[in-house]
Amino acid sequence: MGVTSSSSKGIADEVNMRSDQFPWQKIVYTNLEDRPEKQRVYFRAAVEAAVDGLWRELDALLPPKVGDSSTDQPKEEDTERDDELLIERLCEFMKGGDCKESFKALEDCVKESGSILKCTKHLPMLIKCVDAHSSYYKPIIALGESTVKQLAKDVEAFVLSQKEPAAMDD
After folding, report:
1. Euclidean distance between CA atoms 167 and 170, whole angstroms
2. What is the pTM of this model?
3. Domain limits, the chain
4. Cα dist from 111 to 77, 107, 114, 115, 159, whole Å
5. Which positions fall inside the GCK domain (predicted)?
6. Which residues of 3-33 are buried (b: 16+ CB within 10 A; e: fewer)?
7. What is the CA radius of gyration of the chain?
8. Contact 149, 12 (CB under 8 A)
9. Rounded to whole angstroms, what are the CA distances from 9 to 100, 146, 158?
């Protein structure tokens, strides 16, 4: 899964987060500290931008119910509470479909371990279930795919921009 000059496909074209071959472990355990500072800064910024975009899209997809405290005018210090409420709405949505057991297994693992990064073994089962019940989970599938593809395009553009100066030196 790399960028080659002989192929018209790039990283973004090859990314399929629902595939059994998706390199969850490689992505989760990649040590950015081993990378040059410029790459670390860029990758962190790209991931933060992707997460921010994902949160905004999730909030639009799963709006608060009328009467929730989160429908009031937001205050600066309420962002953590807003995130908690959004997570609650996402969990409610996920448990509302046929994948509630596989989602609950992931949720329990995250609560127990304190990190989703330690729960990647639950992702393939959840993803297969979500795919099998795609009519209900379609909005989440589309949002996840678009986020991953955009992040892959951003990373690919950065990788290519780093190779261009070297190619000009030849």
Report:
1. 6
2. 0.67
3. 35-64+79-97+133-169
4. 24, 6, 5, 8, 36
5. 86-155
6. eeeeeeebbbeebebbeeebeeeeeeeeeee
7. 19
8. yes
9. 36, 17, 16
